[in-house]
Design goal:
The chain is mainly alpha-helical and 593 residues long.
Amino acid sequence: MESIVKFLEKGQPYFDKVSKNIYLQAIKDGFLAAMPIILSSSVFLLISTLPGVVATVGGFTLPDWWNVDVVNFCNKVYNFTMGVVGIMVAGTTASALTGSKNRRMPAGKAINATSTMVAAMCAMLILAVTQTSAKIDGADVSVFFTDNMGTKGLLSSFVAAFATVNIYAFCIKRDITIKLPKEVPGAIAQNFRDIFAFSFSILFVAVIDVICRTCLAVPFANVISTLVSPLFAAADSYAGLALIWFMIPLFWFMIPLFWFMGIHGPSVVKPALNAALFGNITTNLATLQAGGHPALALTENFGNYIGELGGTGATFIVPIIFLLFMRSKQLKAVGKASVVPVMFAVNEPLLFAAPIILNPYFLIPFLFAPVANVLIGKFFIDFLGMNGFIYAMPWALPGPIGTFIDTNFQPISLVLVVVLLVVDFLIYYPFCKAYDNVLCKQEAETLAEEEAEETKAVKTAAAPAVEAPVVETASATEASAAPSALRGKDLRVLVLCAGAGTSALLANALKEGADELGIDITSNAGAYGSHYAIMDQYNVIVLAPQVRTYYNEMKADTDRLGITLLSPKGKQYIDLTKDPKGAVAWIEENLEA
């Protein structure tokens, strides 16, 4: 086991390098910015499918006005939100990539993020959308197909964003622009400076589009999907899923492996398959609405609720094992503290407090439980009639609830959850028990040492006493008073993690500690990547352990803005989330340092 850990530690610089790739970060941050569209549209989609659900589960029919008016309204909202998410992701990805590029641009030169966002959205439409003419009411009308404006056009979104931002960077570095007199207002001059960059970006993708349509008679979006469709088809097979969960360069296997090293795996691996994850949801939904069986397993929430039941490593059952079956005080305490967060897929308290990260006892179950889960889930879809997932639901929804909703409320999905929990229990229990035995032995040795120290202290107390000098101590009230260094300060703290789940733990602890100490601290949680627009509103930023790899890149931004950047290590972070006053004291200590 130790040799495996050493091997992984040697590879950590490579993992860090991959996780910091600006293009992968841009895809992740672009999706994060578009997540309100995806999640809110899913609510309207759920409402539109309600008539079929109540007819199947409840055995009755909703009124006609609901089946027609409400369903049509919800479908319209869905079509104009999720149906155009590809356009939006092109813009948000370009904006995120622009931010990364600007941090690497020469002094005095910067790319206009708003301009690249607009250019990328236009470029995506050129690459993905087919325009034609049709007769409507006897008149020739120009129309275009909307199929590729949503998730089917995501690969075009990424190509458009990457091409646009790089062309802008090329033009700006070399001053390929229209220069106006200094008397022209800055806002107007900026628009003229971007004309060449915008035009070259549109011309570049237009040439690609002409080549694809001339040579292959399909838009660029269809060329890419055709080329990678065999990969996605293979990925949705048993061999493909097993390969994905085992091969390092691919999908979910890397997520627990990165996490085992303390790196946020989804940020590294998932961007490469986002097009398939969300595109397959759309395909499954269309199949269900057409009366068929949605059979694609490789979807976003299939990984969240099945492969990552309870968080990365399929840890839903682990706190329950700690609470009910372990004897060590440490594991029972960890189980008690983490059981509720893990239910909502926030398993960092478990990962860092047990700890699971870099603990050789947990490497095997941490990697193999997700593999077992996805293969079992695939079996339920293929042979037991369970639906593939059809909605884009929030990742923090408890797995059992999310699975039930995402399969269109099929009772068999609850059977799947029970099976997964039993299997995960069988996988994790032997390793938990082995680690528990080690901790019990250590706790027994510690207890014996404490008893020996106590006996020694009693003997010392029995000796003739020597009068000691009187030392005045602060009263309990004074001890609990607010730290003088923070009293009266305008302290605004932003805690960042990968998905705003772990960061909320420390942000809430800081609020609680500030209230107890009677001081004014504003603390909020956020997701790394969505912080650029709001970071200047804070004077302290704390990076959670899962995003510590971005420290050096973040430091350049915080130094420029005069913000204090802090980054506690794994167990220290978890300890702070459970000690509100200690969290405030830690902030004070680091501000004084």
